[in-house]
Amino acid sequence: MDKQKLIDGLNEDLSKELGAAIRYMHQTAVAEGFNGEELREILRPDINEEIAHATYLMDKIVALGGTPTTKAADFEKHTDVKKMLEYDLKMEREDIENYKKRVEQADAVGEIGLKVKLEDIIAEETEHAEQIERILRGFK
Ligand SMILES: [Fe+2]
Ligand SMILES: [Fe+2]
Prior knowledge:
Elements: H1 3-30, H2 33-63, H3 81-108, H4 112-137
Helix pairs in contact: 1-2, 1-3, 2-4, 3-4
């Protein structure tokens, strides 16, 4: 496990965080109807959390001697609120799995501060996923 591999992985995470922030901005802008209004209220605070994750990763990549990406990962655009949420849940779960790998990589190179911070991010992404699961259970 070398540091460059860790930096490359963190850059993938960063791109996905930037994409997540834009995805939630986009979804809460285009969602309509009563479900859309609720989605705005529920998901708007998550935008700032994803931006905070991206900001942390950008700082860390620089601290590790890497070049942070400014490219946001692309995402599927849905207009149906239920489809949006199903896709969000899939993406949040993917992010959690990626961060679990990154925790192991950080540990392998002795980056304990990074490891702990990634675990905090996992905790927040888990809250996002559980929140979306709760909402989806209410859909008939
Ligand atoms: Fe995030
Ligand atoms: Fe998230």
